[in-house]
Amino acid sequence: MAYDDKAHRHEHQVKVRLDDEIFQELKDVARDMKLQHSVLSREIIEAALEVKRTLGELPFELEKRRA
């Protein structure tokens, strides 16, 4: 199975780091929608990318955060 290979598995993962408050809000919204929070995260990302493909840009500014 391809996912037994650790390198392959990492190529197919997207890790997102969220503040505790944002993560809790994501979980709350997912619960209300009867979804897993990881599924909701994927749906949100895919929707944003579809908007970008359609409009050629995102309709909002993304703030660059410093680590």
Q: Which features characterize this protein?
A:
3 helices, mainly alpha, single chain, 0% strand
How many H/I helical runs? 3
Instruction: Note the main sheet.
Output: none
Q: Helix share of residues?
A: 55-70%
Radius of gyration: 15 Å
Q: How large is the share of residues in beta strands?
A: under 5%
Give me the count of strands.
Answer: 0
The structural class is: mainly alpha
Instruction: Give the distance, in angstroms, between the N- and C-terminal Cα atoms.
Output: 36 Å
Shape label? globular
Give a written overview of the molecule.
The protein has helices spanning 6-11, 20-32, 37-55. The chain is globular, with a radius of gyration of 15 Å. It starts with 5 loop residues before the first helix and ends in a 12-residue tail after the last helix. The longest helix is centred in the C-terminal third of the chain and has 19 residues, at 37-55. Helix 2 crosses helix 3. With 67 residues, the protein is mainly α. The protein has 3 helices and no strands. The chain is 57% helix and 0% strand. The protein has a domain at 16-55.
Task: Write the topology of this structure.
Layout: H1 6-11, H2 20-32, H3 37-55
Helix pairs in contact: 2-3
In summary, what is this structure?
It is built from 3 helices and no strands. The chain has 67 residues and is an all-alpha fold. α2 crosses α3 (37-55).
